[in-house]
Amino acid sequence: MLLFFIPFILFFSLSSAYIWEFDPNKLQRQLTQNKTVLLLHYIPYGETYKNYKSTFSQLDEAIQKQQNKNIIVGQIDCEEYEDYCENNQITHYPSFTILQPNDQTIFINSLETKKIQEALHTIGIEIEDIKPIHIITFTFENSTEIAKEPTLVKFFAPWCGHCNSLKPIWENISRESKLRIGEVNCDKESRLCSIYSISHYPTIIYITKDQNNNEVREVYEGERTFKDLKTFIEQKNNSKKQEL
Fold first, then answer.
1. 145 lies in a domain?
2. Is residue 11 part of a domain?
3. Mean pLDDT of the chain
4. What SUPFAM superfamilies does this protein map onto (predicted)?
5. In terms of Cα–Cα distance, which of 185, 182, 168 is closest to 50?
6. Residues 111 and 144 in one domain
7. Is 160 labeled as catalytic in the residue annotation?
8. Pair (205, 144) in one structural domain
9. Residue 127 falls within a domain, yes or no?
10. Pairing status of strand 104-108 against strand 2-6
11. Cα distance between residue 172 and residue 166, in whole Å
12. Are 108 and 7 in contact (CB under 8 A)?
């Protein structure tokens, strides 16, 4: 099998599109029928899987709108079909591949927006309205900028498993949110994290100023899911409108 490594990102918000559930035999039948399969390799637990499954559904919806019946979006459970995933060089989850009838496989493994369009273009999908990730990186040097306008800030450490699970959700939130979204790497910015009394990772804080120009902090205590974070942001946006 000829392998092409092309960076790619899935970038859409939540959707309810239909996703094929494959086993190795069903998958092979689609390929022998000259179908191209955009395949999610997953293990059925964890917040990262839930988030990428949602974005994968949105990709399926985009393909359906283009009425391309030769492209199928599906997924395969690598806990149940471990041998298949290992034999096809899938080493982390979730992972994405484009399987083509000519035995060419495109591995999708990057978060660069420009490469999204390039990878989709190879299978005949043209999507122009890609929403970019917009996350402000705060440091001690620019920390005075944090409270200049209402901002939701994630304090994290790169070695933290829960932080890594939150990363794709945080990126999707930044694409959808009208509220400013930021983050602080506490491994690099220990002094700034100390100022905000960060004791565990990830910690999410809504930061704004009151009428006396004093900084106000509210620690987010909800679930770290796209839906719950989006609801929290909408509540803050609505309360801000009422103040105005």
1. yes
2. no
3. 80
4. Thioredoxin-like (SSF52833)
5. 168
6. no
7. yes
8. yes
9. no
10. parallel
11. 10
12. yes
pLDDT at 110: 52
CA 217, CA 29: separation in Å to the nearest integer? 55
CATH number at residue 84: 3.40.30.10
Is the pLDDT reported for residue 61 higher than 60?
yes
* pLDDT per residue as tens digits for the range 6-32: 333 333 333 334 578 899 999 888 888
Total domains present in the chain: 2
Range in 32-46, 77-91, 98-112 the model is least confident about: 98-112
Q: Is 85 a known active-site residue?
A: no
Q: Does residue 221 fall inside a structural domain? A: yes
Structural domain including 143 reads: 134-241
Give the active site residue among 85, 163, 186, 193: 163
Residues 54 and 106 in one domain: yes
Whether residues 233 and 150 fall in one domain? yes
Q: What is the mean pLDDT of residues 45-68?
A: 64
Q: Give the residue carrying structure tokens 């599109």.
A: 17
User: 102 and 49 share a domain?
Assistant: yes
Q: Is 21 helix (H, G, I), strand (E, B) or coil?
A: strand
In this structure, what DSSP letter does residue 143 have? G
Instruction: Tell how many helices (H) and how many strands (E) occur in the chain.
Output: 7, 11
Q: Which of 72, 92, 121 is the last residue of a domain?
A: 121
The span from the CA of 148 to the CA of 209, in Å, is: 7
Instruction: Say what the pLDDT of residue 180 is.
Output: 93
| Tokens standing for residue 27 | 């998958």
**Is 120 buried (19+), middle (13-18) or exposed (0-12) by CB count in 10 A?**
buried
pLDDT of 114: 60
SS (H, E, C) 45-64: CCHHHHHHHHHHHHHHHHHH
